[in-house]
Amino acid sequence: MQKRSLVPILYIVFLLLPIYWLLNMSFKSTNEILQSFTLWPHDFTLDNYRIIFTDPGWYMGYLNSLEYVAINTVLSVSVALPAAYAFSRYRFLGDKHLFFWLLTNRMAPAAVFALPFYQLYSAVGLFDTPWAVALAHTLFNIPLAVWILEGFMSGVPKELDETAYVDGYSFWRFFFRIFVPTIAAGIGVACFFCFMFSWVELLLAKTLTSVAAKPIAALMTKTASTSGYQLGLLAAAGSLTLIPGAVVIYFVRNYIAKGFALGRV
Amino acid sequence: MRKTVNQKAWFFVLPVVLLVAFNAVIPLMTVVNYSVQETFGDNVFFWAGLRWFEDVVTSERFHDALIRQCIFTALVLIIEIPLGLVIALAMPRKGPWVSVCLVLMALPLLIPWNVVGAMWNILALPDIGLLGRSINALGIEFNYTREPIAAWFTIILMDVWHWTSLVVLLCYAGLVSIPDAYYQAAKVDGARPWAVFRYIQLPKLRHVLTIAILLRFMDSFMIYTEVVVLTGGGPGNATTFLSIDLVKTALGQFDLGPAAAMSLIYFLIILLFSWLFYTLAMRNEAR
Amino acid sequence: MIAAIGLKDIRHSYVAEPRSDEDFALKRMTLDLADGGAYALLGPSGCGKTSLLNLISGLLRPTEGRILFDSTDVTDASPEQRNIAQVFQFPVIYDTMTVYDNLAFPLRNRGVAELEVDRRVREIASMLELDAMLDKRAAGLTADGKQKISLGRGLVRSDVNVIMFDEPLTVIDPHLKWQLRSKLKELHGRTRRTMVYVTHDQTEALTFAETVVVMKDGEIVQIGTPIELFERPQHTFVGHFIGSPGMNVLPCTVEGGKAVLAGQPVETINAGLWRGNGKHLELGVRPEFVSFATEGIPVDVVKVLDIGRHRIVEAQQAGSRLKMLVPEGVSVPTGAAHIRFDPLHTQIYEDGWMVS
């Protein structure tokens, strides 16, 4: 082993420590947590997880989160596809300004939009539904998806389009039969990022929901603060939120490097 | 790529424009509207001109939050960018360990932000947290709920933990895209490792580093959830950054006018910085 | 300073633990390159020529065998220690540096005094006609300009043992290819450095090199001057690969020391040497050495293609097709005709290899 591989190894250990501590806590009883300092659970228990899986007040939170994340991902990527195609292939009135304006929305602090969103989605009757959160998250996810997809599409030579037209394909048949499969990796990466930013964002998700559509992570903070010092339960709920992310990363593991450069290295 | 002029392309971007406009333009108009009016409740509004803007710009509270925000963002950039670069350089380029490294490194990026806060909360607790207890065991007084320095230390460490991977992954993507021939030519030319870094890797990483700095700037400038969960902006106001201050004003005190004015100033600062940095980076590239 | 290069019994595999012969990208070979020669490694994609080049430069370490520069064993030496220069398929330049700094880079890395650096850089720049753009950023140059810089970085060092070229003209516009190629030839004449040029293009190889090494499937099939490769291909592959159109290869038999084709005896240079142990016998003759005759082997003329000074005639002979080159002024019969082969340029091949 080379000396320099020590750097990534140390870094990964540093990354895993807090995660380990969270898992460690989640398998401890409240007694053990409060009365002793132990590096691993001596009094191993699954009680914390049992509470979460048997109480709909808890597990519905996960389903709510996954629901708006899924809606947001599908919506963002499907409207971003044709737009990214237009930006990568055509010049049209105001194209550059439009592209820049889209990107500025990625720079909008959620804190700025929290209150106006609350009023907007209350006014249109979507407050406390997954749709409110899904739509709100398109604010930063659509620009991101357009940007990523445009990068991948610009890497596909225009000759592909022209050959298809010469071969007698109509535009939409070409788009779905040839073009979309060609940039499948880019679509995967765009989905990954939409999932990621919708899954991790909470200020808006919390502001736009109250009971019915409350996301898990928001629920977690609330429960932890109102029902006293239930650290074990809090840790268990937190540990469970790691799973969707880990699953998604596993699926895109071979595209991570290229994906994080947003297709434009 | 050569592009053809086609005004019909507007139909392709229309759904995106409508959705983003709905989400961006209407709320922004609401904010602008509030920022120039005064209300005493019951939906009665009076014209307030630029008073709120003057208030915000001259308010000490805003200045403090802005200064804290700038220090925080500067620290984050100073630590995360070089650290991410060093880790990316040390990573293996081929072999089975690459995927393992990348997957593990990407993990913090996919954890909900308040879970990140909660996780570090648990880790840094002075009595039962691994980090807090270890530091206290070294004989250093450490309690992030009471001492500003401990709070800052914990928050910076948390952000480094949370986001350095983004820089690593970006740089790594840039590094693997450098053709082997460059390294071979450097070997043949007798270049030392430092020269390889300075004349091959760094120039080729320009683009991804620009993206990394831009993203880290924007996101650290907008940080909210993690800090609220960890310290709630305290102790005192020691870790009250712009977003936290804004939410306190808007949702906590319901001071809509000042909050709206502050929102606009905040948004403009981010846009201005991003635009300045991007323009400078691109101008250098052109030269 | 300049050295003769010897590869002794080398083999190379990209597999960690090669078991069968299949695992070797380069089969066992011994090759000597003389001091100051101009060599080309010629072969189709994937024949191992770039691997061989990288073994010489030290970017790869052979799985087996030794590499000698004169009598020094350099098998374990790095490219830097071997003192070689290499020009790659795609131009490699240091983007942030000027053309001048690019050329000076290899010298400065070796701690050469700045005065000497300046003298060498200016000398090489004028040789490559880069003088006018010395102060420009290298990133702004065209592909051929960049490739000239790569080349210049190799030439600038006065002590290199060998300069290697890995398909250096791939990204160069066709009309500039010819220019750069003659530049290379001229530079070789002026500097008399050993040069090794890898290519899959026979024109490049034959015009540049004094000696051409033809490779196929990780093996050397023939080493020779361009004329030797043309007139005496040692393997039917060389006959096919070099020449346009390639050599005709026709199945035949040998009876009593004479080749027999279509029931007719054919004069060859080597049928008498055949000892009758191979399975598969073929007769090889280049289109240039086939002509129409009043009697001889009967054929049917199938197609005539006019390419200017010559016509390529395709004729059907029993089960196989053959091509012949007919000069201007000679009439081409239609339908049935007879042909003869030039006895001095007709060879017999046994399992692909020339009988000797």
Q: What keywords describe this structure?
A:
heterotrimer, A: 265 residues, mainly alpha, MetI-like fold, 2 domains, 14 helices, 1% strand, C: 356 residues, alpha+beta, Rossmann fold, OB fold (Dihydrolipoamide Acetyltransferase, E2P), five-stranded antiparallel beta sheet, 9 helices
Structural overview:
The complex is a heterotrimer of chains A (265), B (287) and C (356). Chain A is mostly helical and 265 residues long. Chain A has helices at residues 6-26, 30-35, 47-54, 56-89, 95-104, 110-123, 130-154, 159-166, 171-182, 184-200, 203-207, 216-226, 231-251, 256-260, and one strand spanning 90-91. In chain A, helix 12 (216-226) packs antiparallel against helix 13. The mean pLDDT of chain A is 84. Chain B has a single domain, classed as MetI-like (MetI-like fold, Orthogonal Bundle), CATH 1.10.3720. Chain B has helices spanning 9-35, 51-58, 60-90, 96-106, 113-124, 130-137, 148-176, 180-188, 193-221, 225-230, 242-252, 256-286; strands at 4-5, 37-39, 45-47. In chain B, helix 3 (60-90) packs across helix 7. The two termini of chain B are 21 Å apart. By secondary structure, chain C is α+β, with helices and mostly antiparallel strands. Chains A and B meet through helix 1, helix 4, strand 1, helix 5 and helix 6 of A and strand 1, helix 1, helix 3, helix 4 and helix 5 of B. Strand 1 (90-91) of chain A pairs parallel with strand 1 (4-5) of chain B, so a sheet runs across the interface.
